[in-house]
Specification:
The chain has 12 helices and 8 strands. It is α/β, with parallel strands linked by helices. An 8-stranded mixed β-sheet has the order 1-2-4-3-5-6-7-8, with helices on both faces. The mean pLDDT is 95.
Length: 276
Amino acid sequence: MAERIIRSSKVRIDDISVSYYIKKATEPEKQVILFIHGFPFNKNSWRQQLASLEDNITGLAVDVRGHGLSTHGHGFFSIDVFAKDLRSFMDALGIEKAILCGVSMGGYIALRTYELIPDRINGLILSDTQHKADDNLAKQKRFDSIQALLRYGRRPFALGFIDNLLAKKSIEAHPELVEFIKSSIRRNSIRGICATQLALASRTDSSALLAKINVPTLLLRGEEDKITPKAVMEEMHTAIAGSKFIEIPGTGHLPNLEDPLAFNKEINLYLLTHSR
């Protein structure tokens, strides 16, 4: 069996340079899976998932525009812009079809990408995300967060973020995860974090799209997620025909990092079941 290495690379698309990881299949390729991180993280969030993939799966994890090592470009962010970047990324690498796996913001991007190019998406894995746009209260919270970030900087933003993001057990048992999250936030510029908050606040509602999704869809949620309500993900499950909904015990908003073994088990079972 050939050793599979996660390689780091960059590609120029439109007005930006996109940084990404790739782990190529060493056996006849059955599927390509693209991992899309949440806010305000980067492709490093997905290393444990890439490492777990079977030898017939090619996996890629991208840094969304303005995150990690991908450049900002014009700087006017939206979920639509992020989705069109993903389409251009697939074009640049010659990826005809892919399964999209997104957590939180990555799920919003995955849904919008499916809306743009449904014929090129042959599966969805949506973790701790939702189809609804921000209501006025949620928008105002984002605006307040921007003001606080501009006034006090990234450190207090990161500390408050962690409390909402992770299950209590994860915070207590995994100090290295807490440090990883702080480090990920520090990697992003204040400008990029603020621009992404505005993109999240302005995203469109995807409710009408759900009934049109006709690819295998796996919905995952950390059982103790304080950010994404269970009822909202159950709505998605009901609306997406044939979808599967699983909660991962003892985890919060980032089950792929809080319990990678359980998360990887579910995505690899999905890939095994739906390999073409």
